[in-house]
Predict the 3D structure of the following.
Amino acid sequence: MSRTALIAGNWKLHKDHQEAIHLVSDLGLRLKQLELGAVEVAVHPPFTDLRTVQSIVEGDKLPISLGAQHVSHHEKGAFTGEVSVAMLAKLQTRYVLVGHSERRTLFAMDDATVQATAKAVIQAGMVAVICVGESAEEREAGQTNDVLSRQVLAALSGLPNNAADAIVLAYEPVWAIGSGAAATAEDAQLAANHLRGVVASVLGTASANEVRVLYGGSVQPGNTEELLRGEDVDGVLVGGASLDAATFSEIVAAAVRCYG
Ligand code: 13P
């Protein structure tokens, strides 16, 4: 397996910048004790924490990549409340979540905006972590693959053919997020394999084999290894369990056992 695993923590609307100092310092100490090998770790704090986390990561040389949770697809201008890709890139941000289901459902982010945002992120030299996933109703109606195809095709349209190393896909079934009921390892693998096939249809097989596909939704230390066993699952996107350094580093340790 040539793909580097990615274990990413999405802090959502948690941790002020002082709490972020404690969390990232504690996490950094724990990660330094692990032989990370082919496992990359990223955190996605709120915007107000980014500068603080960047300083600690650089100053203490922590093995952590910096991520953001969202960004505007506009370059600049009269867009009150927004943050631009240039602002994130200036902070050495490497990853940006694009189209997380909470942005799609709570803030009306549609497929076209997801596409425009992914494009802006890539043009700024960062990696777009494009989040996709079906709702419980869509799953019950047998529409999972159709929904995933639609979301990925929309997100990838208009991206350059060599975008493979500038995108990561995150399969996050909406019903599994924050519910305590993660997808089974088998379902995560099936969805990841389907997503890779959709990428292949747009960017070609070689590129599709480079793209990392993550699973997200109620990931815990106890289910990480099983989820990562799927051959198309290249990492996890972790919400609640990333808010505690000990718990998140246990998830990283599980990944190291699989990939390290
Ligand atoms: P939980 O791990 O809390 O279910 O959240 C998943 C998620 O939305 C990560 O982006």
